[in-house]
Specification:
Elements: E1 2-5, E2 8-13, E3 16-18, E4 25-28, E5 31-36, E6 39-41, E7 47-50, E8 54-59, E9 62-64, E10 71-74, E11 78-83, E12 86-88, E13 94-98, E14 107-112, E15 115-117, E16 126-130, E17 138-144, E18 147-149, E19 156-157, E20 161-167, E21 170-172, E22 177-180, E23 186-191, E24 194-196, E25 200-204, E26 209-213, E27 221-222, E28 228-231
Parallel strand pairs: 1-4, 2-5, 3-6, 4-7, 5-8, 6-9, 7-10, 8-11, 9-12, 10-13, 11-14, 12-15, 13-16, 14-17, 15-18, 16-19, 17-20, 18-21, 19-22, 20-23, 21-24, 22-25, 23-26, 25-27, 26-28
């Protein structure tokens, strides 16, 4: 396991980490950590920036065969992100989350230009979630220009989002849904997203406040009856 705790100004580049029983990469309570061009393969637990880490970035990494998050921003992470990475056969591929183990909300974080395929264990390929015991929805989250393919539990689970933007993403042949908003996500922009080959383009929505502009999401099952949403005329499927 490669672990950084309470550390600053670390760069990891161009290495392969595989066949570990726990975390290939575990960065906790650290800042200014940069991970690039690494392979993280066939290990037991998630790669993660966690426990209040800040200004930490992963770019151009390849992640595969991890029965947990391929790479997660977990528990109070701020000003950090995941860009131009790929994940295959993880559960899920990429995510932003908090829960009882690390309840603090993540804020000002990014997942962009990533590809996740073949998520396992009925998990979607991408998640922004507040799980049981978390202090609230994650805020100022940008999920942009990502591609989800053949997620066993869907494409993008966005049920733990409080402000942010979901822009330019594609869901292709994901099980059940392309994009799931849950019932508590609030104050976000959902624009220029595409869902193809899913049962529902977008699901959830009974308590959301959001703006939908220019999406192609046919077959949606999106409930706007209790939502404070602006749905632009240029959407197909809503």
């Amino acid at each position: 396991m490669n672990r950084a705790a309470s550390a600053s100004y670390i760069q990891v580049r161009g290495i392969t980490i595989k066949n570990l029983t726990r975390w290939p990469l575990n960065v906790v309570n650290s800042s200014m950590v940069y991970i690039s061009d690494c392979n993280m393969l066939s290990s037991g637990n998630a790669n993660q920036f966690a426990a209040g880490s800040s200004h930490c970035w992963a770019s151009r990494c390849t992640i595969a065969n991890i029965p947990d998050y391929g790479l997660a921003l977990y528990g109070g992470v701020t000003d950090s992100g995941i860009t131009s990475c790929t994940a295959n056969s993880c559960a899920p591929g990429f995510g932003v989350l908090n829960d009882a183990g690390q309840p603090a909300v993540c804020s000002n974080v990014v997942i962009a230009n990533c590809v996740s395929t073949n998520s396992q264990n009925n998990q979607p390929n991408f998640i922004v979630a507040t799980n049981e015991g978390g202090d609230g929805n994650n805020s100022q989250v940008t999920v942009s220009n990502n591609v989800s393919v053949s997620g066993s539990g869907g494409g993008f689970d966005l049920s733990g989002l409080e402000s942010g933007s979901i822009v330019g993403n594609m869901s292709h042949n994901d099980s059940t849904f392309g994009f799931d908003m849950g019932d508590t996500s609030q104050d976000f922009m959902f624009s220029s997203n595409i869902a193809q080959g899913t049962t529902y383009g977008v699901t959830g929505g009974s308590n959301n406040s959001c703006m939908f502009i220019g999406n192609f999401v046919p077959g949606s099952n999106y409930d706007t009856s209790g939502a404070n949403c602006i749905i632009n005329d240029f959407n197909l499927g809503l």
